[in-house]
């Protein structure tokens, strides 16, 4: 295996040996068709093999990714490699746990699906104000601690979507080895990732970064924003600025990227093979580009699809993607064309404002209002 991808020399408490700074997120594999979760295994396998051969050794999946198919695929994809040459992370689906039996059953199911005897990093998934007390159900955390004692979990942590106040509460409620945060140069201030990062650092455990490119949002900036970055360095991708920003934080152990094609995989590896932390003059450029981007009023959707399926069939992530593109480009023609490519049964006008999606959205986006805005915008453009 080639070892091109950068590994931090920093010694993190409780981490015996650091994994690659770039981690492969397994939520956005290429699929066989646009609207289906089935993974294009041939393409995805090429991406996994290329990443592994170039030093990426951290792979992050979860129980619901690709409607439950991600764990099975990554288990098969990594099976040909020696178990001690890669780190595998997956997550307990918090919303499905109502008893100790649920936790036990799902954990052993995950081991079987991933075809491993242990998980290097195991997370309580997507903790927030309303759900973290799931782990106060009698026996659940004791079970996870026992799995760690037996070596079936090497490091126990959680991923988080809420306010710093709630993070501080959760991080002191149990014993953790690491925390996974949404951290990028938009959310550093926008969702106060700065304070969240500080809380994790002061607790004394490393941070694993998710959504460094904000679901692709920070790879598709407005033309004016891109110009600032390209003027500074025309030889690197727009996405690479976001990856490097997150990786430059001293207490970051791994930066996850949910790669969905070979081009993204190769670009990330180029970025992290010759990794250089962001310098002050580069940070100034990022700040300028972000200021211009925020003026476009883009919706902070990461495309995670936690809001799906919609009871009415509305394709929320795709509609927000189309709307964001319009907010950045202001092209009415492109918006109308993309909107009309959607089947009528998936369009914004079908939203009944039930609010179910809002309760599931990690970004706390007012989705029903936006569906109304999108529907109105389409009618306005169509009638003009």
UniProtKB/TrEMBL annotation:
Alphabetical list of CDD domains matching this protein: AKR_Fe-S_oxidoreductase
Keyword Cell inner membrane: no
PANTHER family (alphabetical): D-THREO-ALDOSE 1-DEHYDROGENASE, OXIDOREDUCTASE
Pfam families: Aldo_ket_red, Fer4_9
UniProt keyword annotations, A-Z: Iron, Iron-sulfur, Metal-binding
Single GO MF descriptor: metal ion binding
4Fe-4S ferredoxin-type domain residues: 342-373
Domain of life, per lineage: Bacteria
Protein name (database record): Aldo/keto reductase
Protein's UniProt keywords contain Metal-binding: yes
